[in-house]
Amino acid sequence: MRRVVLPLCLFLGACVPGTYQTNTASRAAMPEESMLPPMKSFSAPSPVPPQRANRDILRDFLDLTFQMESGRMLHHFSRFEGPVTVRVTGQVPITLMADLNRVIHRLRSEAGIDISRVTEGAANITIEAVPRAEISRNLPSAACFVVPNIDSLAEYRRARGTPATDWTRIIQREKIAIFVPNDSSPQETRDCLHEELAQALGPLNDLYRLSDSVFNDDNVHAVLTGFDMLILRAYYAPELRAGMSRREVADRLPAILSRLNPEGDGIAPRFAGPTPRAWIEAIQTALGPGARPPARRAAAIDAVRIAQAIGWTDHRRAFSHFALGRLAQASDPDFAREQFVTADRFYQTVPGTSLHRAYVAAQLASHDIALGRGEEALARLAPHVAVAERFENAALIATLKMLQAEALDLENRVAEAQAVRLDSLGWARYGYGADWAVQAKLREVGALNPLRGPNG
After folding, report:
1. Are 75 and 218 in the same domain?
2. Residue-number span of the structural domain to which 282 is assigned
């Protein structure tokens, strides 16, 4: 499942939630009635190839494949055998079908999976679009989730807790259901499509040690990465078949990875250590639903302490400081800035963390703007818009551009600021959804600017 986490684009004050509540009629009418510019969309995908050693990727593949997020072990390799069909049911958001067609095309072309969408009859994978409240009612910590051997939420309620929905009993996959929200922002629904389709087809586990993957509960990556596509291509390699043991898969993987990713044979392994349960629980308390602000901050402090005690210098150490900075910024902005600077220092040492650094840059630029340092904010933001575009994160693009607009205003470059702000709105409509959510994000970012009055 994709976990609910605090929005990553969190600033000095209140944050804009990633979901919104409205009725179906108003969602359908929004493109015609909105006073905002048209919603922007992404061009041809340009995923970043894996930048790690095949010896590391082999270990990642096995740990992703033969264990679940809960820690339960899987004794057999499971996948679909033969062509895979996908259908969509429920009240479908207007952007979902285009995003689904796009990811299916990527799965066919990049991962080599024989997968296609059908419009009637039964399918191997059923994607049901339901209200967010229905998902929360069944799994409170999930933004979306995937279940075997059913094809509807009603059937899931009847089968929940029975052997039919137990992943450890699955060897050859035949029927799987994915539940995605139909009243969230277009980007959040798309992100769910990517992550849950990947798990329906491939690994069921998430690993915090992965810096370049959607198979990571930090939710930094919004769409399937080059690493993810390599994992899925290996998953459906002809050398493997459903029912194999871990040892049988491990014996075949070196040759598979050498064939699919020859560059990885020439990269030295890093052998990132395991992630202790105490750190995972601290991060989930800090960023997940349910905890009050003091408990969140205390949990983030615990995550930093655990990371320091282990001696981490990788992206997990960076993410610990980033989480603490996000939770401290409203009450102690100077301390928060120190945490963001520390996070960026660690991210710099880890290959494949350019997207992580873009999030940090947004936080640090918000501090620059609040202090009236427009030139510093512009220099800090400049490299990261292209990164957010490559990783197809419209919410981050919109936020970075809104920040650029405020920084340009501080430098009295008013016409440029207006053009950049207008450009941000098309991305914001995809990333944040409803008009009110876009306007709220504009006000939130605008409130950072000391040139504005108390009313923004």
Report:
1. yes
2. 2-32+276-446
- Give yes or no: residues 172 and 304 share one domain: no
Contact between residue 172 and residue 81 where contact means Cβ atoms under 8 Å apart: yes
Domain identity same for 280 and 255: no
pLDDT at 24 over 50: no
* Count of other CB atoms within 10 angstroms of residue 332: 14
Q: What is the mean pLDDT of residues 360-366?
A: 97
Overall domain count for the chain? 2
Burial class (CB in 10 A: 0-12, 13-18, 19+), 446: middle
Answer yes or no: do 372 and 231 share one domain. no
Look up residue 4 and give its DSSP letter: P
Do the domain assignments include residue 454? no
**Count, residues in the chain:** 456
pLDDT in tens, 327-343: 999 899 999 999 999 99
Q: How far apart are CA 107 and CA 173, in angstroms?
A: 17
Pairing of strands 176-181, 84-90: unpaired
Terminal Cα distance for the chain, rounded: 39
Residue 143 has pLDDT above 60, yes or no: yes
Tokens of 39: 């919603």
40 within domain boundaries:
no
The answer to whether 314 and 272 are in contact (CB under 8 A) is: yes
Q: Are residues 247 and 344 in the same domain?
A: no
pLDDT of residue 17: 30
- Has residue 408 got a pLDDT over 80? yes
Residues 213 and 319 in one domain: no
The whole-chain average pLDDT of the chain stands at 91
The CATH number that applies at residue 431 is: 1.25.40.10
- Give the per-residue pLDDT at 5: 61
Prediction pTM value: 0.91
Q: What are phi and psi of 239, to 5 degrees?
A: -70, -15
455 within domain boundaries: no
Pair 107, 232 in one domain: yes
Q: In whole angstroms, what is the distance from residue 367 CA to residue 264 CA?
A: 39
**Could you read off the pLDDT of 184-234 as tens digits, one per residue?**
999 999 999 999 999 999 999 999 999 999 999 888 998 999 999 999 999
pLDDT in tens, 279-301: 999 999 999 888 899 999 999 99
Per DSSP, the chain holds a count of helices (H) and strands (E) of: 18, 6
Q: Compute the distance between CA of residue 28 and CA of residue 82 in angstroms, rounded to an integer.
A: 37
Q: Are 192 and 260 within one domain?
A: yes
